[in-house]
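Run log // design_07
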């Protein structure tokens, strides 16, 4: 006698919480569900979810960025640009890229962690993929969306998390080592004709005591004398660590590097204190007393010059701090 496994329904909400046909189809078509065990949701942005996951073949832990295509403002060409950039980078101070691919994702293809945290990547539909009355092939096509996966090394924490955790108690030797790592990573990136565009402590991560630059979502590679278009310029405007000018080039990253240097020297104990420091500087050029009396005050001011032409290059910054 053939046994039919029925869907599992929540007794309170009457919502289907497990559907055998959906899981079977999802694993059949999804390399991610077949090859990786999801361990933790690390974050969610406007264009996708980042998860900590274990590869079932090599048993190593990675970070996977999952972007469902066609449901966000970013088009595939824009997302593909990030893959093209990170796949060509290999440096100890840049988050390492490993692989990427696209799969069809089904309406029911959500990890247990995403379901628990409400971090769904699709249109929210929970209907079955089986054919039947009111469920045609056309309906099934609507439930299948392309999803891009980008797998990179999994780091321990961000610089933002580290600074808040330390509560202003990071020694200058430690802070100097962080800044040197960031500068080395930025020099390598610029040496590959790439402007990062969003350099800030949330995109700087540590692994095995090496600080690395990550998240190249709005990075651009130089083509001739041009780095980008109006889209990236609009995306950059108004960010806390961003330069005041509209032009996108290496010197924009240098300004952001200067803001990070100020934060590493001042070491504000709270987020509110940090934003007060930056607001004061952007309004009248005033730096906190802790920065004003620091040996690298002059370097910080050069990095934060309003005129991009007066800012040093990453190579010049590295020479200055490693003398």
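design_07 sequence
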């Amino acid at each position: 006698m053939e046994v039919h496994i029925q869907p599992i329904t929540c007794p309170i909400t009457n919502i289907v919480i497990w559907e055998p046909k959906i899981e079977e189809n999802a694993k059949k078509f999804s390399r991610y569900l077949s090859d990786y065990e999801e361990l933790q949701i690390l974050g969610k942005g406007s264009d996708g979810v980042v998860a900590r996951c274990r590869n079932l073949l090599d048993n190593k832990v990675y970070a996977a960025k999952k972007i469902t295509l066609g449901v966000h403002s970013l088009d595939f060409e824009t997302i593909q640009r990030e893959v093209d950039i990170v796949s060509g980078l290999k440096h100890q101070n840049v988050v390492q890229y490993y692989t990427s691919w696209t799969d069809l994702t089904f309406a029911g293809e959500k990890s247990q962690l995403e379901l628990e945290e409400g971090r769904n990547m699709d249109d929210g539909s929970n209907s079955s993929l089986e054919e039947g009355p009111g469920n045609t092939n056309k309906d099934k096509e609507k439930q299948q969306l392309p999803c891009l996966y980008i797998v990179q090394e999994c780091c321990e924490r961000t610089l933002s998390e580290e600074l808040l955790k330390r509560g202003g108690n990071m020694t200058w030797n430690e802070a100097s080592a962080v800044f040197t790592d960031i500068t080395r990573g930025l020099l390598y990136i610029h040496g590959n004709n790439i402007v990062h565009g969003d350099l800030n402590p949330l995109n700087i991560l540590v692994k095995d005591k090496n600080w690395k630059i990550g998240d190249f979502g709005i990075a651009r590679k130089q083509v001739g004398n041009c780095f980008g278009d109006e889209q990236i310029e609009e995306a950059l405007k108004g960010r806390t660590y961003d330069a005041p000018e509209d032009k996108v080039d290496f010197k924009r990253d240098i300004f952001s590097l200067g803001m990070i240097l100020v934060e590493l020297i001042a070491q504000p104990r709270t987020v509110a204190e940090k934003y007060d420091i930056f607001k004061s500087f952007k309004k009248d050029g005033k730096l906190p007393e802790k920065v004003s009396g620091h040996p690298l005050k002059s370097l910080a001011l050069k990095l934060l010059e309003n005129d991009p032409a007066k800012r040093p290059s990453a190579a010049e910054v590295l020479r200055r701090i490693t003398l």
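Residues 11 and 303 are 61 Å apart (CA to CA).
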